[in-house]
């Protein structure tokens, strides 16, 4: 599942439309007419949010306050946080598993901020980051007993919603000076400072909510998916909806993106992947690790196809067909795992093969 979670961060954003048609599987596929990926139209003016100094997390180890929320470029949400570190060790804070109005999103601290903390160069994470050419940033650095304020930008793929009523974020806490694994519950140089129980509680990943318009978790209503012209419903049952929304060719003419809408209707996290796939009848490696979608949430993201793989494309350079094996797996909790089955942390809930054809 770790590889699956990491691969879910890869999708990017670009434009230009094409129409699609799919077939296969017990549910079949049906085209729908309409427009808009989220059922909302982006506002031309920036939204003025009312949130002010809302404490979203407060425990024995830290307090997180959402001071303000502003609208950025492309209708992003920029949340200014103040994080207080109540412990006696230096910590770094980051956010993951982000959802805006129920749709998966991503976020980041300003990459040029001087307040960021980085993995120790000699640590496992630091050496891996150096080998990959990555900065090794852990998150916002907050010293022991101190507090730091910084802005965190939340962005949604193909964001067309004029107002964001809810931002859900899972806090991730790291030990700044850990020499092995920053997420370890045993900070090498700081073991005397924290007990095992304290370190375990401190690093627990907990989801918190920010409500820019003053609504609450009980009053927020997620916008329903609205079909676009030519989209194909692959599966729509009591557990999930899976739609190949469209195939787009980028402006550079060298890349296609398959835009996929997914809705998880269950109370468990589901992973959607393509263990096997073909483009124009040739074996490909698309969406192999898939995307995790939290209970009751939705995802709108893209899978990349490069034209550099000449065997995929006819002379006109088009994607004509895509065949994929859709595998849907349920994430199993620790209580569901047995001592003899600790590696199988997912359970298949659906599998089917589909072929989609595309016309300009």
Number of strands: 22
Distance between the termini: 36 Å
SSE order? HEEEEEEEEHEEEHEEEEEEEEEEE
Tell me the major beta sheet: 10 strands, antiparallel
Number of spatially distinct domains: 2
Mean pLDDT: 81
Give the overall shape. globular
Q: What would you report as the Rg, rounded to the nearest angstrom?
A: 22 Å
Q: How many distinct helices?
A: 3
- Detail the poorly predicted runs: 1-20, 26-43, 337-342
Structural class call reads mainly beta
Strand fraction equals 35-45%
Instruction: Classify the helix fraction into a percent range.
Output: under 10%
Jot down its keywords:
2 domains; mainly beta; Immunoglobulin-like; disordered N terminus; 360 residues; seven-stranded antiparallel β-sheet; globular
What does this structure look like?
This protein folds into two domains: 2-37 and 225-359, no CATH class; 54-210, Immunoglobulin-like. By secondary structure, the chain is mainly beta. The two termini are 36 Å apart. Strands 3, 4, 5, 6, 7, 8, 9, 10, 11 and 12 form a ten-stranded antiparallel beta sheet that branches. Strands 1, 16, 17, 18, 19, 21 and 22 form a seven-stranded antiparallel beta sheet that branches. Strands 2-13-14-15-20 form a five-stranded antiparallel beta sheet, with no helix packed on it. The longest helix is centred in the middle third of the chain and has 9 residues, at 124-132. It is 6% helix and 43% strand.
